Amino acid sequence: MDASTPSAPPAVHRAVVLGASLTGMLAAAVLAQYAREVVVVDRDELPADAAPRPGLPQAHHAHLLWSGGERAIEELAPGMRREWLDAGARYAAMPDSLIMLTPHGWVRRGDQAMQHQIVCSRDLLDATARGFLLSRPGITVRTGGYAYGLIGGPARVTGVRVRDLATGAVEDVLADLVVDTTGRRSHAPQWLTAIGLPQVTETTVDPGLVYASRWYRAPDWAEDFPVISLQPDPGKPLPGRAATLLPVEGGRWLVTLAGTRGAEPGIDPDAFEAYARTAPHPIVADLIAGAEPLSKVRLNRGCSNRRRYYERLRQWPAGFVILGDAVAATNPIYGQGMTIGAQGVRVLRDVLRKRGLADARLSSTVQRRIGRLVQAPWDITTGQDIRFPGATGPKAPLAGRMTHLYVDRLSRTAMSSEAVMRTLFDVMSLDAAPTALFRPGIVKQVIQGPPGRALTEPPLTAAERAHLYPAPTPAGA
Description:
This protein is about 30% helix and about 20% strand. It has helices at about 20-30, 65-75, 80-85, 120-135, 190-195, 270-275, 285-290, 335-355, 360-385, 400-415, 420-430, 440-450, 460-470, and strands at about 15-20, 35-40, 65, 90-95, 100, 105, 115-120, 140-145, 145-150, 155-165, 170-175, 175-180, 200-205, 210-215, 225-230, 240-250, 250-260, 290-295, 300, 305-310, 320, 330. Helix 10 (about 400-415) packs across helix 11. By secondary structure, the chain is of the alpha+beta class. The protein is globular. It contains 13 helices and 22 strands. Strands 5, 6, 14, 15, 16, 17, 18 and 19 form an eight-stranded mixed β-sheet that branches. A five-stranded parallel β-sheet has the order 8-2-1-12-21. Strands 3-7-4 form a three-stranded antiparallel β-sheet. Strand 5 and strand 6 (about 105) form a beta hairpin.
């Protein structure tokens, strides 16, 4: 990636982070340990509390922070977990706090935690992180501005050009390192070509997924109801339909419905419950049937998978790093975006520890490792999504299709095997590499097949079932 030796870095001892996303905030907190000044640039005026902002429209929809991401964040910023829990988030042990229907049956619940999730609204998650991460010495937040170009050339980026949204004024902000965490909207490919680098290879896999979400007041008995996830089946020649219910802070439920091309949900509030009944099971529809709606229905159509192969460029400029969704944005239904972003910041931290901020090879080393980090979750998510009718993008190669057959059998086996389910959860949460699915002991169990029958009904406790499906009152009582 480094065809020429970069010129000496500017002696400004400054890092600039583009985007106050969770990934951006974590990057700023890490960089504050190496730079005298860290400047975070974002278009939005960032709310002081857990409130929505225009630059984070996906906050209206269900978000999952898996344990693989939460552990990376806690490693980068010790105490972050406690901050979230104190603010009202839930530590949900998996699978005990999960009611999940997969294409192969219901996941069994149990007392032994395999992994966990941090469950709350995205607004609370981000607001708490802002207060904990961006208040650190050396970090300055500049709102109402956006980057529209890099300063420098193909060998080295020396800063970023920032335009003020209110005045239109343009300022060149010099930096030793510029980190792009602007997500799906990133203009990094255009910025790179503008400074003399080749076009970046890009791949998109689009199942045509549309999200529709609505907030509800949870019944008094159900504030701590388990997370519900009803997954679509890409193995059927039908559009996929899914439903998620998150019990979040403030006694609320966030319900997100999703459908692939040909089964997209709409914005009509009167049709929301009816669509929920077309999901793989009616449990979400049954729960919201008697719940009070707290919002209108909001849609999200930006759910395709997009991968930019920055690591394939033969030359990479010193002083520029791209992280998170700006590299690989995966279908939100898999709940891996925040985890991949956090693990990417951990890669940045690890390379900074070895090389320091001014090292000429820092950026190329980080970008190569980010490419390796995102490849496995990219292969898994796109390998599933391309199977839905009407999906667009490159088809999986023969080896990939054979892997899908194996994973399908593994998932079916996991429905009645605790050991296989534990491994599957480790991979789902990005706490273990997909290679864990091919360990000899797991392969042996998959070849033998399911040791028992999969559950055919939701694994509700007696109390949950009594509230959700109360026995009819006898006549004359």
